[in-house]
Specification:
rod-shaped, alpha+beta, Cyt_c_oxidase_su5b_sf, single chain, about 120 residues, 5 strands, Cytochrome c oxidase subunit 5B, mitochondrial-like, 3-stranded mixed beta sheet, zinc, metal-binding
Length: about 120
């Protein structure tokens, strides 16, 4: 009798397992653009529009750099800090502030000018 009593308790304690339909529905990951907000969303939209460097943070090569044809530095502000590596093999960077409207000459002789760029 003790054996059948234990078996009855074991059978009543078992729960049947059921699977709901949503488990088998294929779920897609949401688009990251839908979840992005603020500056992150504007950066993603700029990348989709084809602009690889929306904040102009990449290193650019110097052009002729004369007073008549200075190197143009885009900025959404009235001033910007610019670093110039005067010689290719040097690790020293000459830093200078560029202000809107006035070109500035580096110690190495290259000229730089700040030009207006629309903010992202």
């Amino acid at each position: 009798m003790a054996c059948s009593y234990g078996r009855a308790i074991l059978l009543t304690c078992r729960r049947s397992i059921s699977y709901s339909a949503p488990r088998y529905i294929r779920r897609e990951c949401a688009d990251p653009l839908e979840h992005a907000t603020g500056i992150e969303k504007r950066e993603k939209l700029a990348h989709l529009a084809g602009e690889e460097d929306p904040f102009n943070l990449n290193v650019t090569k110097r052009g002729p750099g004369t007073k008549e044809c200075p190197n143009l530095v885009p900025s959404a502000f009235n001033s910007r800090l610019v670093g110039c590596i005067c010689e290719e093999d040097h690790s020293h960077i000459n830093w200078m502030w560029l202000h809107q409207g006035t070109p500035r000459r580096c110690e190495c002789g290259y000229w730089f000018k700040l030009v207006e760029k629309a903010p992202v």
